[in-house]
Amino acid sequence: MKILAFESSCDETAVAVVEDGRTILSDAIASQVDIHAVYGGVVPEIASRKHVEAIAALTEKALKDANCTRQEIDAVAVTYAPGLIGAVLVGLSFAKSVAYALQVPLIPVHHIRGHIAANYLAFPELEPPFLALAISGGNTLIVDVRDYTDMEILGATRDDAAGECFDKAARVLGLSYPGGKPMDELAQRSRGGVYQLPNSKVDGAPLDMSFSGLKTAVVNLAHHAKQVGQELDAPALARDFTQAVSDTLVPRAMLAAQQTGRKVIVAAGGVAANSIIRGDLERQCARAGYRLYLPPLRLCGDNGAMIGAQGYYEYLAGHTAAMDLNAYATRDITD
User: Fold this and answer.
1) Which of 41, 95, 147, 232 has its CA 20 to 30 A from that of 83?
2) Is the pLDDT of residue 124 over 90?
3) CA-to-CA distance for 256 and 259, rounded, in angstroms?
């Protein structure tokens, strides 16, 4: 089964052709990073307009790269939530028109389910059940993946997402947007242990997380240093910040695995590309005897292939939509 998949939830327009949920035939991406870097973050209106400009030509490219005709497409999958509402609407509206024109099923896909499914493309042997640590710019979740479309949230951030905090910390340190990669590179230049940063806990919810205090602490450190004329040790702060994020995420993933009895852990999302977090997950999983799946870096960020992968399993579960399908800025992964 060949699925034409669309992803436009933030600042990357992505179109892919995926076969049987496991094989990438093409994965075309038009990034807007350089455009938004000028503003230090994504400007929603600009993102939406750029999606409109790119999506038609990108679809033609995806079909050509896959050596696939329109008539060979069996279904259309699309991100319908969550994300910047204008951006999501562009991809959804275009996907609807394609599904209608080709007279094929329309498959709605939750963005975070797509991130988790990216691992199916990299690891043919991976099958549920497993525990997923989904960490991205807009979401931070610990998910019990019981089956391909049966999932339960075990823990989540109560405020900011881990990726959003990386972007804010990077901006404070004068690094470019998006902040994940430059923060990772800067952190490699120090062993850390210089700055004491908070590790928040949520009373009565040991698997839930909070990152707003960590973000505020970094901002306050930078402001204080500027006020008293001190120079920040930027590599050390990047390292200590990253370690604080990892020390929030990894122990909770281990605890969730222990509580559920899962022996397989999967990482997903853009923050899963961070080398320190990946290393901590590898060490802790090896120590506990868990099997760990880390997506290749190219599948950590937003892409269309992950939507096609999850779309296949949504289709098998009978989850298709009519032409009145709406877009949502926020949506529970279990909906």
Assistant:
1) 147
2) yes
3) 5
257 to 253, 270, 306: CA distances (angstroms): 6, 22, 24
pTM comes to: 0.95
Non-local CB neighbours of 54 within 8 Å, separated by 6+ positions: 13, 30
| Tally of CA atoms within 13 A in the half-sphere of 297 that contains its CB | 7
Output the six-digit token pair for 146: 């019981």
**161 pLDDT more than 90:** yes
Phi, psi of 55 (to 5 degrees): -70, -35
* Alpha helices, H only, the chain: 33-37, 44-65, 85-102, 111-122, 162-172, 180-187, 212-228, 234-260, 275-288, 304-316
Distance between CA 312 and CA 237 in Å, rounded? Answer: 43
Q: Which residue reads 């972007």 in tokens?
A: 167
**What is the Cα–Cα distance from 190 to 175, expressed in whole angstroms?**
16
Q: Are 132 and 268 contacting, i.e. CB atoms less than 8 angstroms apart?
A: yes
